[in-house]
Specification:
single chain; 5-stranded parallel β-sheet; globular; alpha/beta; 5 strands; Rossmann fold; 164 residues
Length: 164
């Protein structure tokens, strides 16, 4: 039975790097919000952080992703969602979508401290390797510290939790 893997963690936790490896391991297809947003909407992005504008586009993007997931599920293929999933309500929405398709979902939480994440972001910005989609600024990191909702214990039941 296919599974939808939900990868979450704060900025710089290593979600994309982990999702790439996980998709390889399970023979699944990875969907990354950052990659799609940069490809589809970057030319239209404003210079200031505009969460309503961004969230509207993420919602549209995810609706299309789930149309593709339906096709994958029909073929028995796992999906790996590197969608940030910063809010519990967002994670719940993805779990409900999986349930509606009659498939399992599994949470993967990358629980990495701020100092390590900040260092990783700086390195990723400089090196621009495989997991790089756009430069993450110190202001973005600060914003995300207040935006991200850490999964609660009930959400972590049966989850994969990584701390490095």
């Amino acid at each position: 039975m296919p599974t939808v893997h939900l990868v979450t963690g704060n900025v710089g936790a290593g979600k994309t790097t982990y999702a790439i490896a996980l998709a390889q391991k399970v023979g699944g297809v990875r969907f990354s919000t950052d990659e799609w947003m940069v490809t589809l909407f970057h030319p239209d992005m404003r210079n200031v952080m505009d969460m309503p504008w961004t969230m509207e586009r993420i919602d549209r993007l995810e609706n299309q992703v789930w149309k593709l997931i339906e096709q994958l599920v029909a073929r028995g293929i796992d999906a790996v969602l590197d969608l940030g999933l910063s809010k519990k309500s967002h994670r719940d929405k993805q779990r409900e979508r999986a349930r509606a398709l009659g498939i399992a979902s599994k949470l993967h939480f990358l629980d990495v401290d701020l100092a390590t994440r900040t260092s990783r972001v700086s390195k990723r910005n400089a090196e621009k390797r495989e997991s790089f989609s756009f430069e993450v600024t110190p202001e973005m990191i600060t914003f995300m510290e207040g935006w991200f909702e850490r999964p609660a214990e009930d959400e972590l039941a049966g989850a994969v939790v990584l701390t490095s």
